[in-house]
Amino acid sequence: SIDNIKNFSHEIRDYLEFKCPSLVNNDINDCVSYHCIENALYDQEIYSFLFSSFKEKYKQTEEKISKLILSFLTCTPAHLGINRKFWLIGSINSVEEETSVNIKKKSVFDDEDILVDSNLLLPPYYQAIETLKTITKQTNASAKLQVLIKTKNQIHYCISDYYNLLKNQNDNEEIIIGADDFFPIVIYILIKANIKHFFAELSFMELFSLSTQMFGEGGYCLVTFQTALDYILQLNPHQMEINAIDTIINARSKKLGRTHSPHLIK
To answer: What are phi and psi of 31, to 5 degrees?
Structure first.
């Protein structure tokens, strides 16, 4: 049962933290010794047995989440209220090949042509989405937490790469991603990744991670993705459509120096 697994995991955590105090004092994410111990404890066979209990425990919740995410798979950054500058896309009104690398796009928000690298034709945050999908291949909590951390970092890399490739980008302009900007991007990536049993994945990490890990970057990422998943359960498709319209109107109005009050996603 999950309760027995929980007790077992706590015994392992207490033993490791007592026998290996360096695990508590050092950064767990960089501790090679701990990863070796964890990999030995949770081989594929043991992990499969343990994780099957999580899947059974949260079966109904997973089915609800899966149904919702499937209905949201075609959503765009605008549907989630993501700031326009973090959409990392633009409607192509005209495409003219400049070279084998560069493509000429016309922005839907102004009359300027912008030169965009062909890599930008990939879905927004493609690298972050693909990174998150690798979480199902990991067999221990630390490795799974590392995937969440890498996904968070990939979000920043995707944004940075996008603006570095825009040929009309001001070299001196710094793109700052605030918490209010970051969270809806996480929701977008979570929906697009469409990972089976993701609720069980998060529960597994929470249960089998060392307490010291929860105070670091891994703990922050875990809470962020848990909150994002909870948020998805509250999403309303009709309100998302309204939000998309509001977001586009705001983007257009900003060009004209006007503001528009958006609806909130509920």
So the answer is: -90, 100
> What are 116's two structure tokens?
């965009």
Q: Which residue has the tokens 């290996």?
A: 20
Backbone torsions φ then ψ of 26, nearest 5 degrees: -105, 170
Query: What pLDDT does 223 receive?
Result: 96
Which of 157, 158, 152 lies closest to 182, judged by CA? 152
Q: Give CA 18 to chain center in angstroms.
A: 34
**What would the two tokens of residue 253 be?**
């109005």
Query: With contact defined as beta carbons under 8 Å apart, do 164 and 116 qualify?
Result: no
Scanning the chain, the segments in alpha helix (DSSP H) are 2-19, 22-25, 32-41, 44-57, 59-72, 126-133, 141-165, 179-193, 198-208, 217-232, 237-255
Residue 128, Cβ neighbours under 10 Å: how many? 25
Q: Are the C-beta atoms of 162 and 88 separated by less than 8 Å?
A: yes
Beta-bridge mates of residue 105: 114
Rounded to an integer, what distance in angstroms lies between the CA atom of residue 112 and that of residue 105?
9
> Which of these, 55, 53, 75, lies nearest to 2 by C-alpha position?
53
Mean pLDDT of 246-258: 67
If 0-12 CB within 10 Å is exposed, 13-18 middle and 19+ buried, where does residue 45 land? exposed
pTM of the model: 0.75
User: How far is it, in rounded angstroms, from Cα 150 to Cα 104?
Assistant: 31
Give the strand order in the sheet containing 113-117.
96-97, 102-106, 113-117
